[in-house]
Amino acid sequence: MYDAVIIGAGVSGCAIARELSMYEGKFCVLEREEDVCCGTSKANSGIVHAGHDAVHGTLKAKLNIRGNERMEQLAQELDIPFVRNGSLVVCTDERDRAKLEQLYENGQKNKVPGLTILSGEEVRKLEPNITEAAVAALYAPTGGIICPFELNIAMAENACANGVDFRFQAEVTEIRRSAGGYEVVAGGCTYETKAVINAAGVYADVFHNMVCSDKIHITPRRGEYMLMDKQASTHVRRTIFTVPGTYGKGVLVTPTVHGNLIAGPTALDIEDKEATKTTLDGLAEVRNKSGLAVRDVPLGQVITSFSGLRAHERGGDFIIRESAERFFDCAGIESPGLTSCPAIGEMVAEMTADRLALHKKEDYITRRRGILKPDTLSDEERNDLMQRDPAYGNIVCRCEMITEGEILDAVRRPLGARTMDGVKRRTRAGMGRCQGGFCAPKVMEILARELGVGLLDITKSGGKSTMLTGRDKERL
Fold this sequence. Notes:
Elements: E1 2-7, H1 11-20, E2 27-30, E3 47-48, H2 59-78, E4 82-83, E5 87-91, H3 97-109, E6 116-119, H4 120-126, E7 136-140, E8 144-146, H5 148-161, E9 165-167, E10 172-178, E11 181-186, E12 189-198, H6 204-211, E13 218-228, E14 239-242, E15 252-255, E16 261-264, E17 268-269, H7 280-290, E18 302-313, E19 319-324, E20 327-331, H8 337-356, H9 379-388, E21 395-397, E22 402-403, H10 404-412, H11 420-427, H12 440-451
């Protein structure tokens, strides 16, 4: 019998798992995919929002501010990169200046520190590639950037180190009330639990509606992106937004913590919860709108494009509550969900612990060690490392300079990689200019060797996504 079962291993579910692992109890995360960070959490902007957008008085506003405040310390504890690079909301039309001032006033109510409205000339001094059409901008120095993969994986690993069970390829198909709480049927197994925490992203409405009489509806909102090579990284130093519209913050241009430049997202409401394809129209929109605030965006250096789905609930706010007896919703978590996840985890864990009368542990492990990156070492330290472990002298991914030692660490650590995408998200092998064109065969060999399987069994992302379909000579 578990004290709590969490449905979903995205940033919200793993943040909740990490915070719950601070308490004495037995907890489990159920994830239908082969790894953490396989849904909404893997395809977003990587932005830590300052908090001036969310409407004052909403849960979004409260948790955005709290999440932003916690992010720096959390990144240090989890050994992941975080940069407080600041953000600018650029106004290119005098008629929109009132909207900019409303954002400023809303930010003041939300107590966002350091907000300033700058003139067009002041903005261009900060960011020379801001368009000449810019008449003003809202500057938020507390805005930041983070890697969503690393944050998600790090929280999961830390939760695992503190005793949380993770069950992958465990798609929840039924939730039944029982004498002790609930029976959750997933992946052919039944999990008995006192409480259920629903953090299932675009599927959160499905599980809510299995249990609760009041129904909710989650609309997948697709956003498409373009990712540019590291040579484009200095085009802007801060995150650049335009004045927001009906569907959110619009197409942004921002550096990433790993030195790339990203543009997006679009915003299109759809009904298909699996429609993560990119489209000609969507990418054309990114091309056109990315240039509204930033001139000469180097779109000729795009190395890949992708899309993700945001979980939009028609009420427009996060739904975080005990919606039925010991059934806790964490639904409608769209932007600023990534920013808010530390605060979401904190809030849901406290609600659950209070309801179940759980007590804090004395031996909670606060810190997690990240994958060792040889390029952060001095020459002397790196030489010493290669003497002790020659795998760190074998470069596998030349675009990102990822070594065999890093890939081995990614596979062997708790909740280690089991797929090509799992390796990519943990090490960045395959994320560079060639997008795995050269390193994929070697990564496959390492995975096959470490997992004790054949090359034909290696998948891109689990399930039927095998990298190879057969052997050439067998087809002759």
